[in-house]
Specification:
Layout lengths: L1 H26 L20 E10 L3 E9 L9 E5 L2 E5 L15 E7 L4 H6 L18 H6 L1 H6 L25 H9 L4 E7 L10 E5 L3 E3 L2 E2 L2 E3 L1 E2 L4 E2 L1 E2 L2 H4 L4 E2 H5 L11 E2 L4 E2 L10 E4 L1 E3 L3 E2 L5 E2 L4 E3 L2 E9 L16 E9 L9 E2 L3 E5 L5 E5 L12 E6 L6 H4 L7 H5 L10 H12 L1 H34 L2
Parallel strand pairs: 1-26, 15-18, 25-26
Antiparallel strand pairs: 1-2, 1-27, 2-22, 3-4, 3-17, 5-6, 5-23, 6-7, 7-8, 9-19, 10-18, 11-12, 13-16, 14-17, 20-22, 21-22, 23-24, 23-25
C-alpha cells in the first residue's frame, strides 16, 4: 500500500506543479491598464510632453511665450452639423481624445504671489478636491446644482478645481465655508490667477480667457470672449457666416473633420461680423457652423491678450500672451512687480482632449529680474526681443490623483505633506506620470497583485511537494 501511494505521489505532484504554473501564468501580466470610458478612464499613448517657456516685462506689461508640440492644430471646439433636416451637435466631449477631433488646443498657466503657500510646493495637485468632474467617482450634476453656493449662486453644474482652505473638510466637496470667510480669503489673496488660452474660443480674436481658482474655477469679473451659438427653443443656431464677405454661409463637415480649414481663414463666428441664422437658406447635409460665438470681452476678463498671432506651424504651437503688470483688479489677478518672486504651473490640451485628460507640470519659480526657474527679462520699449533661451518644462499625465487622496492614509507621502515638504523632494516627473496611471487602476492593481501572490505561493507549494515526492521515490523512503 505504501509503495502504491509512493508511485502515485509523483504524478500527483507533477499535476499540482503544472496546475500552479498554469495559475501563475493566467494571473500574471494579464493587463489591467486599459481604457474604460464608463469609468472616465482613457490613458494617453504618450505620458509626457515638453513645453518651452519664456518671460519678459517692461515698465507696464508682462509677456509669456509658450511653445509645445502638436501633430496638427485643433482650432475648433464643438460645432453643429446639418443632418437630414436637423442640426446635430458634434464635439460634446468624451474621455480621452474626442471621437471627431473637435476639442480645441489649449495652454493654461496658474500663477501665485505666495498667498497660497501650498501651490509653490505641490502645484495643481492641491487644487484637485473631492467630487471633481470626470473622475470615476464624482459629484452628480443634480447635487452640484442644488448646492446653495456652488450651484445656486455660482451657477455651477460640476465640481471644478478649488483651494483646500475654501472647505471645512477637504474630503467633502459640499463643505464650502461661509461666504463672508470666502470673501475675506479673496481679499487676502487666497486664490490662483489662471491664464487660459483657447485655440477656438479666444485665439481668433487675439484674446485669452482670464480666470481664477478659489472655491471653484471661475471667470474674472466681466464678460468673456465666447458665447453660445445655439437657440435651445428653436433647436437651431443663432448666427451663420456672412456670405457677402466670406463667400459661404457655412463650413463643410468634411473640411472641418479632416482638418482642411486654414488658420488664416474665417472659421469662427464673431458677433457683428456674422449674420442672423436663416432657417430657409437652403441647408444641405454636412453644412457646419461653430457652436460658439466670439465677442470682445469686457471688464477684468479682458485683461489678457495675444501678442502677435497664436499660430501652429511645423508641428508646434507658438503663443505669446500679454497683460498689464498691474491690472487694477487685485481680487481677480495677481499683481506683478519688478523684482517680484512668484510660482507658476502649466497645462496643455492637445490631440482633441478636454477636461482632466491633459498634461500638467510641477510648480516652477518665476522671478521678474531676479533668480528663478524661469527668469523674466526686463526690457525697454513696447515689444520684447525673444532669443532662443527657453526654459524647458516637462509636462505629464496626472491621472486621478486628488488632494484628499494625497493627504490620506492611502498615500505613503501624506506625512511629508503635513511637514510641508515639496513634491520634488520625493518624486520625479517620470515617477509621477506612472503614479497617475496607477491611480486610475488602484483597485485592479491590488487585485492583480493578490492573485499573483496566491499563484506564487501555490507554485512554490506544488514545487516543494513534487521535490519531496521525488526524493522519497529515489531513496525508497
Amino acid at each position: 500500500m505504501r509503495d502504491q501511494l509512493r508511485r502515485q505521489g509523483l504524478p500527483i505532484a507533477l499535476v499540482l506543479f503544472c496546475g500552479g504554473l498554469l495559475l501563475s501564468w493566467l494571473t500574471h501580466g494579464t493587463g489591467v491598464v486599459k481604457d474604460d470610458p464608463e469609468r472616465n478612464i482613457s490613458i494617453p499613448k504618450q505620458l509626457s510632453v515638453p513645453l518651452q517657456v519664456q518671460a519678459a516685462y517692461n515698465k507696464t506689461n508682462m509677456f509669456f511665450r509658450y511653445r509645445w508640440p502638436a501633430e496638427k492644430p485643433a482650432i475648433f471646439h464643438d460645432v453643429v452639423k446639418f443632418e437630414d433636416g436637423k442640426w446635430v451637435r458634434k464635439g460634446a466631449g468624451n474621455p480621452g481624445p474626442e471621437k471627431d477631433g473637435l476639442q480645441e488646443d489649449r495652454v493654461a498657466m496658474m500663477l501665485d504671489d505666495g498667498s497660497v503657500p501650498e501651490f509653490a510646493r505641490y502645484g495643481g495637485y492641491m487644487a484637485i478636491g473631492s467630487g471633481i468632474d470626470t473622475f470615476t467617482q464624482h459629484a452628480s450634476k443634480a447635487a452640484v446644482e442644488a448646492h446653495p453656493h456652488l450651484g445656486k449662486k455660482l451657477k455651477g453644474e460640476v465640481i471644478t478645481k478649488s483651494l483646500p482652505e475654501t472647505r471645512t473638510d477637504i474630503n467633502n466637496w459640499a463643505s464650502v465655508k461661509p461666504e463672508a470667510r470666502l470673501k475675506a480669503q479673496r481679499e487676502a489673496g487666497y486664490f490662483l490667477d489662471l491664464w487660459h488660452w483657447r485655440g477656438h474660443r479666444s485665439n481668433p480674436i487675439d484674446m485669452s480667457d482670464d480666470q481664477l481658482i478659489a472655491e471653484a474655477r471661475m471667470g474674472d469679473d466681466g464678460k468673456s470672449a465666447s458665447g453660445s451659438n445655439w437657440d435651445g427653443d428653436k433647436k437651431q443656431p443663432k448666427l451663420m457666416f456672412n456670405a457677402a464677405t466670406t463667400g459661404y454661409k457655412a463650413l463643410k463637415w468634411s473640411d472641418v473633420h479632416q482638418g482642411k480649414i486654414e488658420q488664416e481663414s474665417t472659421y469662427f463666428l464673431r458677433e457683428g461680423d456674422a449674420v442672423p441664422f436663416d432657417p430657409a437658406a437652403g441647408w444641405a447635409n454636412g453644412d457646419t457652423l461653430p457652436r460658439r460665438t466670439l465677442r470682445t470681452p469686457e471688464g477684468s476678463m479682458a485683461d489678457i491678450g495675444v501678442h502677435g498671432k497664436g499660430r501652429w506651424a511645423k508641428g508646434f504651437w507658438d503663443v505669446t500672451l500679454t497683460r498689464k503688470l498691474n491690472t487694477g483688479n487685485p481680487l481677480d489677478d495677481k499683481i506683478l512687480k519688478d523684482q517680484g518672486a512668484y510660482a507658476v504651473a502649466f497645462a496643455i490640451h492637445r490631440e482633441a482632449t478636454a477636461g482632466r485628460w491633459h498634461y500638467v507640470s510641477l510648480p516652477a519659480s518665476l522671478g521678474l529680474g531676479r533668480s528663478g526657474d524661469i527668469v523674466a527679462q526686463a526690457f525697454v520699449g513696447d515689444i520684447p526681443t525673444w532669443s532662443d533661451n527657453w526654459t524647458n518644462i516637462k509636462l505629464f499625465y496626472p491621472g486621478q490623483v486628488s488632494w484628499p487622496h494625497l493627504n490620506s492614509k492611502k498615500h505613503a507621502g501624506a506625512e511629508f505633506i503635513k511637514r510641508g515638504q515639496p513634491v520634488t523632494t520625493h518624486h520625479s516627473v517620470e515617477q509621477l506620470q506612472h503614479y497617475g496611471v496607477e491611480a486610475e487602476f488602484a483597485e485592479e492593481i491590488r487585485h492583480q497583485w493578490l492573485l499573483t501572490l496566491l499563484a506564487g505561493i501555490a507554485l512554490i507549494g506544488a514545487f516543494g511537494f513534487a521535490i519531496n515526492q521525488l526524493l522519497k521515490r529515489n531513496t525508497g523512503a
